[in-house]
Specification:
The chain folds into two domains: 123 residues, 3-Layer(bba) Sandwich (Glucose Oxidase, domain 1), CATH 3.50.30; 250 residues, TIM Barrel (Alpha-Beta Barrel), CATH 3.20.20. The chain is built from twelve helices and 17 strands. The strands form two sheets. The protein has an eight-stranded mixed sheet with strand order 1-8-7-3-4-5-6-2, covered by helices on one side. Strand 11, helix 4 and strand 12 form a beta-alpha-beta unit. The protein is globular.
Length: 416
């Protein structure tokens, strides 16, 4: 009888000591070895001697962040190789690291391989203390199945309440939690929020703990331009975005003149260049505006026109007043033409308010953590298209009781 040979789990299997738990998969970056060619995690422009040489290098930067498992001998002497779009999701080290530790699973191994390809597929299991470099198909399938059901640090996505909502007519809708304190992030995630928006001018005290609390879910930091423009905050944003899917939303209106987004981004560029010179890992973040409703006007603030701004979020809006709803709908139409992502914050989540918000067909809705599941459940029973037609009809007869009662009738009919 022929003996069945079992395929090894990987070309290289490193067994070590788990320092920080978690499971991650990405492109291995052996930063302790010479770097032949141009691997995907290396931006050749980092080695340009001046701006002229940098511009002369033909290079197409990836449109999405590249997730990397960094292999280094010591955490505190990282070589200046990682490109700005790289997101480090795990660490393999020879020498025991000292706090503060970076986010992501960390495994300490006795000895790193002395020969490795420049960008091998790598799996790090920080729970078992094992690293698989160029894993077998069986190993890859096993860990992919686990990663599809868990976030970076904590298993939040196993239960159905943590899945994104689909409206009655099949449109995906993100439901976020709106909180005033960083300490409320973990609670908001456990309530099933698809992302968390923190409205606070003060930065988080412990970015590592924040990353763990988010468990891979996106974070919106909503603050004034003055707070986000602090010299100590600017470099921190780039550092945090290595491990956090971060969007910074500047509150509007503000005391600053229009086009403050452009000024803030120039300061961000300066901070990023300084971090490059210090050979610090850099992440990638998005920019948006949090528009506090104050008066009825057709267009959002001038800063909304900036191509840097990808997301617009309206808050403190009263959807029970017809003039406000008409003006807000006009702003949504303008934002759709500009290609902006749109979000609305709901203080009142009764059927009429929810249908009014869905009638504007936003990409996301936000509410307090305790109402997240309530909004998810009701939004799944209402359709974008029917709410949009209902909203246009209601604007013609705002106080008609039959029209006002329609959203609740839909909910009653679809819940039996």
């Amino acid at each position: 009888m022929r003996e069945i040979r079992q395929e090894p789990p990987a070309r290289w299997v490193l067994i070590g000591t788990p320092i920080r738990p978690g499971i991650a998969m990405g492109i291995g970056a052996p930063l302790y070895l010479p770097t032949p060619g141009t691997p995907v995690w290396l931006d050749p422009r980092l080695f340009a001697q001046d701006e002229e040489e940098r511009l002369a290098i033909e290079y197409k930067m990836p449109t999405e962040p590249v997730e990397v498992i960094a292999l280094v001998q010591r955490l505190d002497d990282m070589p200046p190789l990682l490109a700005p779009y790289v997101r480090v999701v795990g660490w393999v080290v020879e020498q025991e690291p000292t706090p503060p530790l970076p986010s992501g699973p960390i495994v300490q191994v006795p000895r790193l391989p002395r020969i490795l390809p420049p960008e091998p597929l790598t799996i790090i299991d920080g729970n078992a203390g094992v690293v698989y470099i160029e894993p077998s198909v069986q190993t890859l399938n096993r860990y992919q199945a686990q990663l599809l059901r868990m976030a970076t640090h904590t298993r939040f996505y196993i239960e159905t309440e943590h899945l994104p909502t689909r409206t009655w007519d099949g449109h995906e809708l993100l439901i976020g939690a709106w909180v005033p304190q960083w300490e409320m992030v973990a609670e908001a995630v456990q309530y099933g929020a698809d992302f968390v928006a923190v409205v606070n001018d003060n930065p988080p005290i412990d970015a590592v703990a924040l990353t763990q609390a988010l468990g891979g879910k996106p974070l919106w930091w909503i603050a004034s331009a003055d707070a986000l423009g602090e010299e100590s905050v600017l470099p921190s944003l780039w550092k945090w975005s290595v491990a956090i899917h971060l969007t910074c939303l500047l509150i509007q209106p503000s005391s600053r003149a229009p086009l403050q987004v452009e000024d803030w981004w120039r300061a961000m560029d300066t901070a990023r260049d300084a971090l490059k010179r210090e050979h610090q890992p850099l992440g990638q973040l998005e920019v948006g505006l949090a528009i506090q409703w104050q008066q009825s006007r057709v267009k959002p603030p001038p800063d909304a026109k900036s191509p840097l701004v990808k997301t617009l979020c309206w808050f403190q809006i009263d959807l029970q007043q017809r003039p406000i709803v008409e003006a807000l709908l006009a702003q949504q139409t303008w934002a759709i033409r500009q290609g902006k992502r749109r979000a609305l914050v709901l203080n009142n989540v009764d059927p009429v308010n929810l249908a009014t918000a869905l009638g504007m067909q936003p990409h996301a809705l936000l509410t307090i953590p305790k109402q997240v599941q309530h909004v998810k459940h009701r939004a799944a029973l209402l359709g974008f298209d029917e709410c949009h037609h209902w909203l246009l009809h209601r604007l013609q007869a705002w106080d008609d009781p039959n029209i006002v009662a329609q959203p609740n009738a839909w909910l009653m009919m679809r819940t039996g």
